[in-house]
Every structure is written in C-alpha cells, then in structure tokens.
Specification:
The protein contains eleven helices and no strands. By secondary structure, it is an all-alpha fold.
C-alpha cells in the first residue's frame, strides 16, 4: 500500500469517527462529548494503519502500544473529569449564538475540524506504521521512548495532582502551585506536547522526518489555541491569586519559580 493511500484511509477514519460522534452529540444535546473521543481518535487511526499495512517491525508494534496507552488514558480521564458537568461553556455559547444552525455549524467547525487536526497531528504515527524502516531499533527509538516516558509522567501526574487538589473543598478558589505545578502552570499540556515529539522521533527513525508538522501543530494548539491561552483567559477572571502565580511560574516549559 502506498503512503498516500494510507494517509487517505487515515483521514477517512478520523472523519468517520467524528461524524459518528457528531450524531451522538445531537442525540444527547452535548457537543462537548467530542473531547472524550479526541484521544481515542488517535488510537483508532493508529490501529487501522497497523492492520492495513504489510510492514512488520518492533517499532510498529511499540508505537501502536504507546499511542493506545496515551489515547485511552486521556479519554478515560476527560470522561471522568467531565461526568455530570453538562455541556462545556464554549459549546453552550455557540449553541445560543447559532440557534437552529448549531447542528450544521458544530459539524463543520467542531467535529470535522477536529478530524482534520487529528489527521495532521497523527502523521508521525501513520508513517511509523507504514515504513519498514530499519528493522532494528536505534538511538532515535530510544530517544522516542525516553521522551514518551517523560511526557506521560508530566501529563499523568499533573492531572492526578490537579484532580486531588480540586477534590478538597478547602481549595475552592485557590491556585495549585505545588508539585509539578510549581515549575510549570501547565504540566499536563507540556507532557502532551513532549509525547508527540516522541512519536516524531520514532517516525524519524523510520525515515519520516517530514512529519515534523504533526508535533509542531500539536504544540501550537496546546500553547496558543485550545490549551494554555484559552484556559488562562478564564482563570485570570475567576481566581484573583492567579495573576501572582503567573508572575512567578513558567507558562509551559518546567523551570524553577521566580523569587521576584
């Protein structure tokens, strides 16, 4: 199978999944369920690429296993975190603004857009599944494994620390500034970005250097679009202490807090 054909299958897979989720969102009147399927979308595309390609390597199996670990954990965590919370305020505002046009608008600007972004970001994984590459694992594969472990640690531990902090009623209105959150205001987003640079390392090991746009796009989204920028805009309005936290704590990359 050619790489172009595989990329086409990956795009159709991502689109089919998101259209299905869109239909489900109409039934439950909650467009924010799309967030629960974001991670699983990567798992599905990686699994399809694994099945339809003929190449066989340790790298191919390893990449599928790591994508599955990342995607399932993320989807389970988001589902648990948002359970019973209702539709996210972003989609509620869009629903109120668009009225009867909301179903069509959400299909294009939310679900199909996420399918496209997913397809672009997942390029290193798809290439690593397609390319026979060097049969033996090399130093780039080791680098990928180390980066994945680092990213998974920051993302998982960061989410766990935040969940534990929010579970204590005494912390309502306060800012978490201990643990990993002492060194970066968004350890989970930082970890997510590192994970996708890990998959890029696996792709480069197989010859897919051109897939750099995948982790670059993910990093941009996390830092400037749906991650840091969007969340902090809301936090600065709801938590007075957050401004002081911003002044002493790195926004993304871990760094010792400022004493100023």
């Amino acid at each position: 199978m050619s790489l172009i054909a595989l990329l086409g299958i990956a795009l159709l897979t991502a689109a089919a999944l998101m259209v299905g989720v869109w239909v489900g969102s109409l039934a439950v009147r909650d467009a924010s369920i799309v967030d629960r399927f974001w991670g699983l979308g990567f798992v599905l595309v990686a699994a399809v690429a694994f099945v339809v390609t003929d190449s066989a390597s340790v790298r191919k199996t390893l990449v599928l296993a790591l994508v599955t670990l990342w995607g399932v954990r993320l989807s389970v965590y988001i589902t648990w975190r948002n359970w019973g919370e209702g539709e996210d305020y972003r989609y509620r505002e869009m629903r109120e603004k668009r009225g009867r046009l909301f179903p069509l608008v959400s299909l294009v600007t939310v679900f199909l857009l996420q399918a496209l972004l997913l397809w672009l970001v997942v390029a290193p994984v798809v290439y690593a599944q397609w390319s026979a590459g060097p049969a033996a694992l090399g130093w780039l594969d080791v680098l990928g494994a180390v980066l994945f472990g680092t990213g998974f640690f920051f993302e998982t531990v960061g989410d766990w620390q935040m969940a534990r902090f929010k579970a204590d009623p005494a912390n309502k209105g306060k800012v978490l500034d201990t643990g990993l959150w002492r060194y970066t205001r968004h350890p989970n987003y930082f970890g997510d970005a590192v994970i996708w640079w890990a998959f890029f390392a696996f792709a480069v090991a197989a010859g897919g250097w051109w897939t750099f746009y995948g982790p670059l796009l993910m990093t941009f989204l996390l830092m400037k679009v749906s991650g840091v920028a969007l969340l902090e805009k809301n936090l600065e309005k709801t938590k007075p202490q957050y401004r002081e936290y911003v002044e002493r704590t790195s926004s993304f990359f871990p760094w010792p807090p400022s004493k100023a």
